[in-house]
Amino acid sequence: MSHPPPSNKPNELTFVLVDGQQPPQRKAAPKLYHKKSKTGCQLCRTRRVKCNEAKPTCHHCQRLGQLCVYDRQAPGGSPSTDKEEETVGTESAVVVDEGAPNDRHYRHGSGIFKRESEERRRLELKLLTHYFTETGRSIAVDEEGNHFWVNVICSMASESDALLYAIYVLSTLHLNRKGQFPGAEPEVVRAYLSIALQLHQKDISEISKSNCDHVCMTSNILRVYSFAELQDRPLDPYEPPSEWLRMVESSSSVFAKAWDFYKDGGNPEPVAVKMVKTLSNSLRSAGRRAKREHFAYLMSRKSECEMQESWDNRDVEAYEATVMFLEGVWSSYCDKLEPRSSIGRNVACFPMLVHKCFVEKVEERQPRALVMLAHYFALLTILREAWWIGDVGQREVYAIFNAVPSAWRSHLTWPMQFVNKEKESEGGSRLWG
User: Fold this and answer.
1) What pLDDT does residue 292 have?
2) Are the CB atoms for 68 and 197 separated by under 8 Å?
3) Helix or strand holding residue 106 (H, E)
4) CA–CA separation, 24 and 15 (whole Å)
5) Zn(2)-C6 fungal-type domain spans which residues (predicted)?
């Protein structure tokens, strides 16, 4: 087994212990402070980072594919006008001017988005056609998935602007991966993503029985987009993909809302509920096969490094839930009793199911959480043939290996072996285009 060369960079991990004590601190690079905006978006305030307050989507939310919510107004001020938004916004920001549907127009740094035009209409027809003929099928793992990703979305696209623009985003990415959209892809994706996120945010704020399916399907497409974005993110120095986890995790609340609307019966079962049931059945089957022993070492509390971390009931619950998920997927993979498509679906849905406390531990760069995350990314290499996943799993495992303290690297033996084995394997069953 070959390991990537260990990193010589000083480690900057912070351990938080139950008794309030902390181990000796490693020397860290000086932190750059800045004046935090009181009127920035929700996400930037939560992350305590500088928000450039671009409308409708700030630079952080746009880069991360997050919903950008402005819920505070400048003291003594009034909501920004279109003129102000255009001045504050970045080059890639798109402003949607509401009005009658035919009167809407979009302003963007690119000429094609400044107004409705034949060029833009032809582009969007191309993107829509490509999604329904190729992209949708490339995401589906089986015939059941094909029904949701192609047939259902096709019937809904004309009823939801957010869903339509999310389709444009994913179709553009897919064309680029196939080498059929050279040059313009980043600009087009940024433009359509800004529009899709703004409209999706509005739909979420007004979610109801009548639009919950549209909201859920839009969330699904944006989830796939978030996986594709991991392929190009910088990994040196390593920053855990906590924003990605939170973005995908947040989509689960949309499905939960749809479930609440219909759990009492008496109404036609929405598409969102059918998708939840399909996933639940698959996870139950995987859970029954979980050996509960292959990854037992992830819960070990024996060595000194393992003892130097928070370990209250909430921590244990989060870690145990994560290990059980990993065990279920791995057992299904080894036993070959579960359809490969079901295994793929379960792996892709992990961020929607992850415990909130686990996400917090990843954000804190806790070694145990990062090690578990590396195990997940190792399993993600099962889906390496999917264009929207590619080598994400392998890249993240190698990066985590270099990022964790050396005392924890023995816990990464299995992920390193597995990704190297998957990398060297040839052929295999193809699930995606």
Assistant:
1) 63
2) yes
3) strand 106-107
4) 10
5) 40-70
